[in-house]
Amino acid sequence: MSSLTRFGGRLTGRLQSLTRPQAVVLMAALVLIAGVWVAAGTGHQSLAISLLALLLLVVLVGILHLSRWMGGLYRASQAANRELRTVVEQMQRRVVATVEKERLTAGDRHQELTRTITRGLRQNGHGNDLLLRAQSREIEAMFQLFQEFTPRAPMPSSGDFALNPTDLLELLHLIKLHQPRLVVELGSGTSTVWLAYALEKIGGQLISLDHDSDYAARTREMLTAHGLSTVAEVRIAPLSELTADGRTYSWYDVEQLTDLRNIDLLLIDGPPAATGPDARFPALHVLESRLASTATVVLDDVNRPDEQEAVRRWTESIAGLSAEPNLLGRHAVMSYSRSAVPV
Ligand SMILES: C[S@@+](CC[C@H](N)C(=O)[O-])C[C@H]1O[C@@H](n2cnc3c(N)ncnc32)[C@H](O)[C@@H]1O
After folding, report:
1. How does pLDDT run across 58-92, given as a tens digit for each residue?
2. Which CATH number fits domain 152-340: 3.30.43.10, 3.40.50.170, 3.40.50.720, 3.40.50.150?
């Protein structure tokens, strides 16, 4: 019962979905079938045959219509296929173009990277080369230092905060050359010991200033270990405010310098740069009047802009002070002559 109901439902659905021409053909066929049936039933054979022929004709027309409709459907599906193929081809072309573009960009990037790496390697190689050469110079200087002096205790290390061997070598050469009686050093450390050895040989004296009591104590200990305490004195001079050329600096307590006269050689290696900008500039402002009539001034770390600026300002403003060519290291040598001051 229920399958009959379902069949009825499906049939009704199909009939409702028929187009108008289909409904007309169906109706005509049903009428003809009914006509054939009635004619045959009532003995009208020739009418029944005629209606049967008409029914056949309707069926033939229906088949023709169906085949035309299917032909249209086939053509529409072919057109849709062609359109789809065109879309797919266009998409393929776009994908290939994008991939090609990315490949070219990646190629360019790869070339650029290769160039950068090559440049980096070359520069690195150059940097290593410079470093090796600088190290060789320091080793050569170190050999010469130990040939000239035979320390009585292990020497503290040079370089970094301390003067480099090349700077020490030229400093000791200046001492040999000018035979100073009094050397003043701003910033104590390894250099204090080397200077003391050089001054011991020629009967000179060294006064070394240090703003830091711990470093001053270390230097004193080193001097004691080397038996140089009578040659060199380390003074603690804490940093305090000082005005020079209209600017305020943090510099050594000048009270520690008042007894100093006729300084033959002044080594400026402090205060450390970290204590403030142009930290070493006040040195000559304070000590120029305490230099001997002819003296030598050495400033370390002239690889730094502040120290280069200090040399420029001093040599421009202090009469009788001129820069000398230095042979080695990262320091500047200046000669001072008071007689050269115009009257
Ligand atoms: C440039 S250092 C002086 C070095 C000294 N003229 C020499 O050649 O050994 C200046 C000041 O830095 C401090 N100093 C020394 N050695 C240091 C270190 N290893 N680290 C930090 N400060 C140091 C000391 O107070 C010293 O007076």
Report:
1. 888 878 878 888 988 999 999 999 999 999 999 99
2. 3.40.50.150
